[in-house]
Specification:
It is built from two helices and 17 strands. The chain is mainly beta.
Length: 250
């Protein structure tokens, strides 16, 4: 009986030593090929379809942590960054996109273009003369996209602030001028005119809109001497067009 107890104790001691030795040298492999592990790794993970998901916390939760050991890593959901605990506190691990597969990068936002083409066809449109201070009519709609829309036959709404390219052409029968009007104010640098001849009046300019839902018009200047006749069928037998094209630049 004494010999049995001695043998049992000996086997128990050997088992404990073996387990302790195994624990000191144990390696853990998670994922694919669990029996193949790098000899230098304490913990190895292998997968071609899955990744590591770090603990996730918001800034208030991180700030409330106490006795945090150096070396702790977590993901801050407030600013979408990986945080590392150092002796001096939390630091953000810098992330570089150099060499990253472009297909894995987030797609840039797609900007919706903002433009509109308003036009008139003569004869039919603009049957009356355009008196000084009044606007040319562009009552028909061409292609449009975004926040530019008509308020009437001769006035147009610019929904957002920013810079706009304005391009217009109108056939008139007399000498005269046209000017871009913004919110009832004529913009002197946009005036185009013709002293003689029968060519179209063409204007192109960039305007700055500082007020949302501003109103744009193309006018016979208030200081003009005469009313303007928009020429029907200018240069031939077909109805001739007048266009107002507006494009938002930024």
């Amino acid at each position: 009986m004494k010999n049995f107890r001695l043998l049992f104790k000996s086997l128990l001691i050997i088992a404990m030593v073996f387990c302790a030795s195994y624990s000191l040298q144990a390696q853990v492999k998670i994922g694919n090929n669990p029996n193949s592990i790098n000899s230098n790794s304490l913990l190895e993970m292998e997968s071609t379809a899955k990744g590591v998901l770090l603990p996730r916390s918001a800034t208030p939760q991180i700030a409330a942590m106490t006795a945090v050991p150096s070396g702790m890593i977590l993901f801050n959901t407030t600013d979408s960054a990986i945080y590392l605990r150092r002796d001096t506190g939390w630091v953000v691990l810098a992330v570089s996109q150099r060499g990253v597969n472009p297909t894995l990068l987030p797609a840039p936002p797609v900007a919706t273009p903002t433009f509109a083409d308003f036009f008139a066809l003569m004869p039919g449109d603009n049957p009356a003369t355009v008196a000084p201070g009044n606007a040319v009519e562009f009552p028909q709609d061409g292609p449009q996209s975004g926040g530019i829309f008509r308020l009437g036959s001769s006035s147009f709404n610019l929904e957002k602030t920013g810079s706009y390219l304005v391009n217009f052409n109108v056939s008139i029968s007399e000498f005269g001028q046209l000017v871009v009007s913004l919110n009832g104010m004529e913009l002197p640098y946009t005036v185009v005119g013709r002293a003689t001849g029968t060519s179209q009046l063409n204007g192109i300019c960039i305007i700055m809109v500082t007020q949302a839902n501003s109103v744009l018009e193309i006018k016979n200047p208030a200081s003009a001497f005469i009313a303007l006749s928009v020429t029907p069928s200018a240069g031939g037998s077909m109805p001739v067009s007048a266009h107002l094209v507006i494009s938002k630049l930024q």
